[in-house]
Amino acid sequence: MKGTKLDRTQIYKEKKKIALFSVTVNATLALIKIIGGMISGSAALTADGIHSLSDLAASFSVLAGIIIANKKAKDFPMGLYKVENLVALISAFAIFFAGYEIARDVFFGEPMKITNLPVAVIAIGLTVVITFLYSRWEKKKAIELNSPSLMADAEHVKSDFFTALVVLVGVIGQYMGHPVIEKIAVAVVVYFIFHSGWEILVDAIKVLLDASVDHETLDEIRKILEKEDMIEKINDIRGRNAGSYKFIYLDIDVKTDSIKEAHAYVHQLEEKIKQAIPEVERVITHYE
Ligand SMILES: [Zn+2]
After folding, report:
1. In the prediction, which pLDDT does 70 show?
2. Across the strands, what pairs with 239?
3. Which of 220, 246, 253, 260 has the fewest CB atoms found within 10 Å of its own CB?
4. What's residue 183's pLDDT?
5. Can you tell me the ipTM of this complex?
6. What pLDDT score does 168 carry?
């Protein structure tokens, strides 16, 4: 069993804190890159700034999702968990549009000239340091909270780190009179913009259509159940995502005929699973 023992309120607070931090980091990165790109005249850096804006949109939808998820409106008795995925779906299209705009400007628009190399280098240097530290911190948090979605985001931030290095090469190439190097750098950035847009889109659609939760989570639950002496037989383990939460459905045979005993046992089993995998919001068990 991975992860430290945190109770539900602590997990909620921790998730909100990470999401808020993520929004702040992406906003800072977008500002540094776009302002740096405009002052220095670097198309690659500006393009990367737009990429950070798309990351900002994604992290903002996660934050909004966490805040709204627990609010139960009268007409939405199952909670508003999927608002996050709906926001993500819309932002995916905004990201595709941004990627298209950058590609059009750089490949078919007026060529930009680097007028201030130090500003560009400083902006990229800051980006490299921030993304490096942030992806390490996020990875640590992902392990602590046993969260695959945080882990995926940490990997994404790591790719942002490498993108910044590509941009640096492009900027220097352009400055030394080889604009083609910058065009290649921009192409790499545009690829990553479309890639993250695509990831967000596919993820959102899957969740909205109630695709299964990841196999790692299902396997982890199976392992927990297999260690239980009270379980006679595991008939089914199923799950769906909503926002950044997981809902699990179990079908088990328990080794008791007393309904009261079975009920008490299942209740503590559900708590055990939620404790082991903090992203699990609810476990619903059918038992006989
Ligand atoms: Zn990114």
Report:
1. 67
2. 248
3. 260
4. 86
5. 0.96
6. 92
Q: Of 41, 34, 82, nearest to 62 (Cα)?
A: 82
Decide: 91 and 28 in contact? Cβ < 8 Å.
Answer: no
- Rounded CA gap, 63 and 100, in Å? 27
> If you measure from the C-alpha of residue 260 to the centroid of ligand 1, how many angstroms do you get, rounded to a whole number?
51
Quote the CA–CA distance of 199 and 192 in Å, as a whole number.
10
Distance in angstroms (rounded) separating the CA atoms of residues 10 and 69: 16
C-alpha 69/C-alpha 92 separation (Å) is 20
Domains and CATH numbers, the chain: 8-208 (1.20.1510), 215-287 (3.30.70.1350)
- Residue 51 Cα to ligand 1 middle (Å): 6
Angstrom distance (rounded) from CA 175 to CA 113: 8
Average pLDDT per consecutive 10 residues, the chain (288 residues; last block may be shorter): 61 87 96 95 89 87 79 75 80 82 79 87 96 93 77 82 89 88 86 84 88 91 94 94 88 91 93 89 91
Q: How far is the CA of 185 from the centre of ligand 1 (A)?
A: 15
pLDDT of residue 200: 81
Q: From ligand 1's centre to the CA of 98, what distance in Å?
A: 13
- Give the span between the Cα atoms of 131 and 224, in whole angstroms: 36
Q: What pLDDT, on a 0 to 100 scale, did the predictor assign at position 1? A: 42
Whole-number pLDDT of residue 3? 43
Burial of 248 by CB count in 10 Å (0-12 exposed, 13-18 middle, 19+ buried)?
A: buried
Q: How far is the CA of 152 from the centre of ligand 1 (A)?
A: 11
Residue corresponding to tokens 């560009």? 120
The structure tokens listed for 264 are 């008490």
CA 96 to ligand 1 center in whole angstroms: 13
CA of 82 to the centre of ligand 1 (A): 23
Number of H-type helices and E-type strands within the chain: 8, 3
CA of 163 to the centre of ligand 1 (A): 8
CA 54 to centroid of ligand 1, rounded, Å:
7
